[in-house]
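Q: Given only this backbone (417 positions), what sequence would you predict?
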């Protein structure tokens, strides 16, 4: 299936090293930008506050709405705020629990909206428990599975969408369509890591071999190499590790990359899918290792972005999504991308749609996503990238709003792209 910006992922050649473009190239970029942002506007039906055009339809909705529909209405505006504004976070705010607690007490309206999104995907008991525990204790809970156990996908739909609003009907039809391919779903914890978590969980649980890019010894030299070349990378925000002092940034990132290689290799050596799945479940209950893996993936995304940016400056061919990545006011170069976007993953925001392409390129995986709010359109099934490499493995995710991602499992029959 193709995105509304279909064809945008052909390759282009930059004609100068100062990032200038001809009138024709500029027009192409502008068209791609308009088409990429268009789905965000179309999402107003389900994720934004109702527009005047839909006001009449909203009056026909039942007075008693489901909890999930109400949450969509409340946090819809947060999506707009996040798309239009970026937040620079001070590295010192993560040095100790006292600072973290101070920040949480004075959280902005934007952060409160993000909390609402997370609460949609967590049990009420867990939310109440975290309200009681100090901030520095909530991250140390043992055996907290970041990817929930399997549940029948249609039963999950019935539990989450009980109303008869147009949004609920669309979601029900979307889940019914997905159920023709997958019988179950695994709910992913919603803490702004969900896109990275769901993708990595699927990749590891399906791993049959260690990817070539993970076998390279140069990968372990990457942190020191980039830090020596780009001093601004020292602003990278590592997730604090409870119980120990952080070391040198290059060493910490290297440890994360080594852990990613070790876990991926371990999973790929397991012959039984059941054994691999059990090991993957166990890994995603170990928060320190789990979040270290996310740091590794985020750093790989930064490295990929730097390579794309430099290639474009040198006049080499780059995928068109990189135009969009660096056309944003908040990420006109890799430094801004790191500060305003990658550093915010897991904190004030998750991955935006264009960053899903960057994730796919960083891991060299095709990410296939069922976008339920796009049911009955050509964008119901979206591929990142939409012209994938033939030798890239495929992972499948499911989303209701392009913000939170869950995992469909138990494929009904063999399917192909």
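A: Predicted residues:
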């Amino acid at each position: 299936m193709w995105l509304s910006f279909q064809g945008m992922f052909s390759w282009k050649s930059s004609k100068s090293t100062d990032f200038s473009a001809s009138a024709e190239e500029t027009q192409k970029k502008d068209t791609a930008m308009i088409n990429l942002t268009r789905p965000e506007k179309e999402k107003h039906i389900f994720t934004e506050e109702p527009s005047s055009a839909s006001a009449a339809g909203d009056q026909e909705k039942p007075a008693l709405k489901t909890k999930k529909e109400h949450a969509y209405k409340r946090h819809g505006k947060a999506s707009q705020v996040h798309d239009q504004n970026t937040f620079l976070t001070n590295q010192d705010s993560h040095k100790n629990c006292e600072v973290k607690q101070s920040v949480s007490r004075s959280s902005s309206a934007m952060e409160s909206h993000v909390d609402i999104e997370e609460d949609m995907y967590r049990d009420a008991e867990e939310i109440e428990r975290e309200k009681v525990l100090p901030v520095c204790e909530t991250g140390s809970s043992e055996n907290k599975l970041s990817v929930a156990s399997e549940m029948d996908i249609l039963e999950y739909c019935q539990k989450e969408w009980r109303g008869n609003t147009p949004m609920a009907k669309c979601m029900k039809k979307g889940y019914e369509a997905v159920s023709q391919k997958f019988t179950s779903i695994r709910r992913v914890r919603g803490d702004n890591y969900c896109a990275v978590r769901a993708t990595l969980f699927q990749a590891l649980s399906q791993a049959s071999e260690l990817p070539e890019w993970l076998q390279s010894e140069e990968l372990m030299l990457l942190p020191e190499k980039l830090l020596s070349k780009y001093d601004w990378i020292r602003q990278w925000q590592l997730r604090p590790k409870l119980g120990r002092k952080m070391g040198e940034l290059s060493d910490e990132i290297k440890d994360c990359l080594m852990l990613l290689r070790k876990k991926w290799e371990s999973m790929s050596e397991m012959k039984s899918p059941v054994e691999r799945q059990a090991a993957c479940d166990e890994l995603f209950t170990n928060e320190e290792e789990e979040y270290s893996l996310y740091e590794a993936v985020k750093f790989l995304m930064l490295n990929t972005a730097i390579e794309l940016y430099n290639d474009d400056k040198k006049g080499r061919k780059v995928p068109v999504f990189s135009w969009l990545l660096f056309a944003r006011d908040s990420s006109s170069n890799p430094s801004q991308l790191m500060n305003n976007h990658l550093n915010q993953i897991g904190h004030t925001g998750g991955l935006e749609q264009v960053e899903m392409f960057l994730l796919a390129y960083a891991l060299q995986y095709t990410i296939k996503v069922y976008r339920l709010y796009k049911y009955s359109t050509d964008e119901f099934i979206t591929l990142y990238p939409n012209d994938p490499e033939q030798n890239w493995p495929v992972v499948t995710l499911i989303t209701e709003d392009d913000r939170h991602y869950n995992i469909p499992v138990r494929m009904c029959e063999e399917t192909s792209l």
